[in-house]
């Protein structure tokens, strides 16, 4: 198996696009199905075994919430 190139990007979406992606993710998690998403031209396949977390950061006047999905490709 070839190793994938490292990647660290952040993609902005409109409110409607973001809501649609969250709905698809919620449906996949709830039904126990694999989640597929395309980000900046690359299709990502999130396995059912992925772990989900929510992170909150605060620095000065800025706050951030990150919905994180992590898994290991073995």
Describe it.
With 74 residues, this protein is of the alpha+beta class. The chain has one domain (15-70). Helices cover 23% and strands 38% of the residues. It has one helix at 15-31; strands spanning 35-39, 42-46, 51-59, 62-70. The strands form two sheets. It has a two-stranded antiparallel sheet. A two-stranded antiparallel ribbon has the order 3-4. A hairpin with a 2-residue loop joins strand 3 (51-59) and strand 4. The longest helix is centred in the first third of the chain and has 17 residues, at 15-31. It starts with 14 loop residues before the first helix and ends with a strand.
How would you summarize the topology of this molecule?
Blueprint: H1 15-31, E1 35-39, E2 42-46, E3 51-59, E4 62-70
Antiparallel strand pairs: 1-2, 3-4
């Amino acid at each position: 198996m070839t190793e994938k190139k490292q990647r660290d990007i952040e993609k902005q979406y409109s409110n409607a696009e973001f809501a649609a992606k969250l709905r698809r993710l919620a449906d996949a998690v709830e039904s126990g199905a694999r989640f597929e998403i395309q980000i900046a031209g690359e299709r990502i396949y999130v396995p059912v075994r992925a772990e989900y977390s929510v992170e909150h950061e605060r620095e000065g006047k800025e706050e951030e919430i990150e919905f994180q999905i992590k898994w290991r490709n073995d």
